[in-house]
C-alpha cells in the first residue's frame, strides 16, 4: 500500500471510529459523547487534506546537513 | 431564513426597509449555503485536489456554516453526519465489489479476449465505444443503477484503449438519460410518491420527461461521436446515434404510457440488441476515416477486420504498427510485469463468452432477483439500518424522523459481489487464474478503493448536513423566489443540483419534488412541465455528481483526477440543462 493510501486508510478508520460516539451521543443526548465524536470525525476528515496539501506553516523546510551544502550560492562560497 | 417577521401597523417606509433587510439576509444565507459547494468545485476543478481532500474540507465548511449561521446543534450535525455515513455505505458497497470484479477479470487476463471479441463483432472503433459507454451503460442503469454502470463501463472502455478520463466521462454521460426510468423507475416512482399528481398529470409528466430524456440520450450519442473525431466522428456515427436513440428514447417514450416501471429497462435492452445489428452494416465494417482520435490512448483505436485506422501507431505502446493493419489497442490500466507474458498465452484461448462472464453473471443474478417477485420480496425484506430522531434547527427548519436502511440482499453491491465470487470460481475452475490470484486481486482492490471510500464518506456526510441544516432548501428556495417568471427555465437546474449533492436522481426527486410542485402551483406554471424538468435535470446531475465521478475514476485507475473529469463534464452538462430548461419553457 502506497503512503497516500495508508493515510487514507487511517483517515477512514478514524472517521468510522467516530460514528458510534456521534450516534450514541445523539440518541442519548450526551453532550460529551457528541463532542468527542465530532472531534474525532473532524480529525479523520482533516487527515487527508492536511497531509496531502499541508498548509505553508506545516511544510518542512529542506533539511541541511554538513555533508550536503546549501543550495544558496552565497553560502557555498 | 429571516423571512416572515412582520407586524401590524408597519409604515410603508419601514416595510420597504424590512424588505431590503430580509432580501439582504436571504441573499447572505443563500451565499453562505452556496459556499461549501463553491469551495468543493474550486478545490477540485481549479486546484486539482482529489475528492477525498476537497470533500473533507467542504464537509468542515458545511458543518461550520450549519452551526454558526443556520442554528444547527452539534448533536444534529453529528447525527446527520452518521446518516451520511450510512448512506455512503450503500455507495462504498458498490465500489469495492465493482473493483474486485475488475481485478479478477484482470487476473484472468479477460480484457484482451473481450476487446478482441468486441472488435470482431463491432469492427468500427466508434461503435465499440458506443457499445460499452452508451448502450451497455444504459442497459446496466436499466437494471441496477446506483453507480454500477460507471463502475463497470469505465474500466471496460479503458480496456479497449480509451483514455481513462474520457472513459469516465463517456460512461457518465452515456448512462445519464436512464436515471429516471432506469433501476426499475426508482427515481420516477419516488417523484410520484412525494408529489400530488392526478393520473392524467402523471401520464403527462411521464410523457414530457421521456421527451426531455430522449434529448439527453441523443446528446450523449453525439457527444461521444464528437469526442471520437469531431465533425467527422459525428458524420460517421450519425446513423448509429439516430437508430440507437430511437430505440432508447423513442421506445422509452412510447412505453412510458404503458408501463412506467419497465420502460427504462426495455428501451435499454432494445438498444443493446440493436448495436450488434448495426455492427453488420457495411458502413460500420469499413475502416474509420478518423485517423487520430483524441479519445484513444496512443492514437490508434482498434479496428477489427476493417483494417485499423491507418494511423500507423500501436495504441498500447505508441510504436508503429504493421502498415495500418489491425492495431491492438491499449489495455489501459491493464497488465503489468511478468504476468503479462503468461497471461497473453491464456488470453488467446479464452472465448468472448467466457471473457464476458463477469457481466453475464451480474445480469443473470440481478434479473433473477429483481424480476421474480417472490425472490425479490423475500430477499428485499432483509435490511439493516439506523433510526434518526426528528429535529429542528435554530432557524426553524424541521427534519422528520428518518430511517437509513439498506436492503442487503437486493442491493446492487450484493449483485456485484455475487458476480465477483461466481466469476472467480468459474475462472479458477477453467484454470485462467494463477496461484494466489485472489490475494493479488483483493490487495489491489483495497489499494484502489480506499481513497474513494473516504471521499464518498466526506461528500455524502456533507450532503446530509446540507439537507438537515436547510442549506440545500435555502439554495433551491432562493432560486425559486428570485427568478419569478423565468423559474421554469431554471427548474431543471434545481433537479441537477439535487442529484449533484445527493448522488442520486431518486434522492434529488424526493428532496426537491415537493418544492418544485409547490412553486409551480404558486407561479401558475404547469406542474407536469416543471416536474419533468426536475427529473430530467436530476438525470443530468448524475454526470457531475462527485460520488459518481469518484466511482468512475477509481475503477478506471485514475483516482485523484476527478477535477479533470468535472472540467470535461461541467460545460456539457450545464449546456444540456439549459436546453432542457428551454424545452420545459415550451411545454409550459
From TrEMBL, chain A:
This is Uncharacterized protein. The chain crosses the membrane at residues 7-25, 31-51. The lineage of its organism: Bacteria, Bacillati, Actinomycetota, Actinomycetes, Streptosporangiales. It comes from the Bacteria. Residues 58-77 are annotated as: Disordered. Keywords: Membrane, Transmembrane, Transmembrane helix.
